[in-house]
Specification:
two-stranded parallel sheet; alpha+beta; 197 residues; Multidrug-efflux Transporter 1 Regulator Bmrr, Chain A
Length: 197
Amino acid sequence: MEKLDFKATDTALYGGKPGRIDRVDVPPMMFLMIDGQGDPNSAPAYSEAVQALYGMSYGLKFHAKAALGRDHVVGPLEGLWWAEDFADFTANRRAGWRWTMMIRQPDWITEQSVAKVQAGKGILAPLRLARLAEGACLQTLYLGPYAEEGPVIARLHAEIAAQGLRPTGHHHEIYLGDPRKVAPQKLKTILRQPVGP
């Protein structure tokens, strides 16, 4: 049985070189998502959302393998980040941060599959299956601790302005390393910003 691996099939979307800013065209993709608010380091809702996403994603993988004869690698955790008051970001007031945490799903995963697996696992989190269409984006591969991303994000936004573009959509991060197993200075994160004219 062939196994779908998004990082292998969509290398431009999940790779890069630290220090380089790439322009990518991101097609519409299906995600399992949970929305929330608060400091990702201390808000219980954040850790509960991540746990539910992984539990469901592995459940969906095994469900699809048994029911559909199709297999895939569970994708990395991703997050969309924003704040009602942008100063909450610049001042690092994390209680005001809003987020949508998500894990990409193959197109063969349906809402019916999600409902079946969610009921079977007894997961009560407000999950949803939705398609995200970002289109044109600038992104960079960041290497280091999450708390020190600020200057790299600022450089990304400076490049957006230098190209005569403007940010559209939410700041998007793709976590390619597991902070439980990888030293903070070796963590790899894709920092992506959708852009428009």
